[in-house]
Amino acid sequence: MPTQREGRLLRSAEKTPRISIVIPVLNEAPTLAHHLLQLQPLRAQGVEVIVVDGESCDDSVRVAKPLADRVLSSPAGRALQMNLGAQQACAPMLLFLHADTRLPTGAVKEITQALNSYAWGRFDIKLSGRSGWLPVVSWMMNQRSRLTHIATGDQGMFMRASAFKEVGGFPEQPLMEDIELSKRLKKRSPPACLRTQVISSGRRWDEFGAWKTIRLMWRLRYRYWRGVSATQLVKEYHDAR
């Protein structure tokens, strides 16, 4: 029979989630319930779901409250929102998930296994939408990530909470925060590049045009590599769109 102290420790361990999923949200009310409902089986398995709202003007907070373990409020900015969520997370593993990205079956098991050997990782991505170019875009994103060890936020970046803390989290900049975090993390270890796919919305490619979006994103990435500030690049991004 366990002692009283051992019993308390066991109960505490049972309440500690295995993974905390952090979801930054900004005006996602029309589709947020659909995506959060898909995470409810994971909550039943001991996964913590944290939604961080960035001052939405719609009903995102109201929609999220019954479907998440925590709903936090933050100034708008994906990096700010994700950092706040990570600070409040209880689990030893973190998964940063965009509100329009769907996890594959068995994602928790794959993340857990990957983080036994790696400090961080990401999934392959499959973009869903109308454009016939989206399979090509998805393939290009996955190949580029595999070659450069740089992940994008819509690939479902995951990591040990200790590694996230050690590198200082996401840099609080308005664009390319996922690239900068990847650069920091890959100094600790290469990423686990899982071939299992998350499914992410291709709405920006559908709305703006596939090749226009590809050219825009590659131009912004090149300019960031050349040292142009994220503040300048986010202005160019909004002007182009």
Rg over alpha carbons: 18 Å
Q: How many structural domains does the protein architecture include?
A: 1
The CATH topology comes to Spore Coat Polysaccharide Biosynthesis Protein SpsA, Chain A
* CATH top-level class: Alpha Beta
How do the helices and strands follow one another from N- to C-terminus? HEHHEHEHEEHEHEHHEHHH
Describe this structure in words.
- Its main location: membrane.
- Keywords: Cell membrane, Glycosyltransferase, Membrane, Transferase.
- This is TIGR04283 family arsenosugar biosynthesis glycosyltransferase.
- It is found in: Cell membrane.
- Residues 20-164 form the Glycosyltransferase 2-like domain.
- The protein has an 8-stranded mixed beta sheet, with helices on both faces.
- Strand 2 (47-53), helix 4 (60-64) and strand 3 form a beta-alpha-beta unit.
- The protein has one domain (15-203): Alpha-Beta Complex (Spore Coat Polysaccharide Biosynthesis Protein SpsA, Chain A), CATH 3.90.550.10.
- Residues 1-13 have low confidence and may be disordered.
- The chain has helices at residues 4-15, 29-37, 40-44, 60-64, 78-88, 107-114, 134-148, 161-166, 177-185, 203-208, 210-225, 230-240; strands at residues 19-25, 47-53, 70-73, 93-96, 101-102, 120-128, 157-160, 192-201.
- Helix 11 runs antiparallel to helix 12.
- The chain is globular, with a radius of gyration of 18 Å.
- 47% of the residues lie in helices and 20% in strands.
- It contains 12 helices and 8 strands.
- By secondary structure, it is of the alpha/beta class.
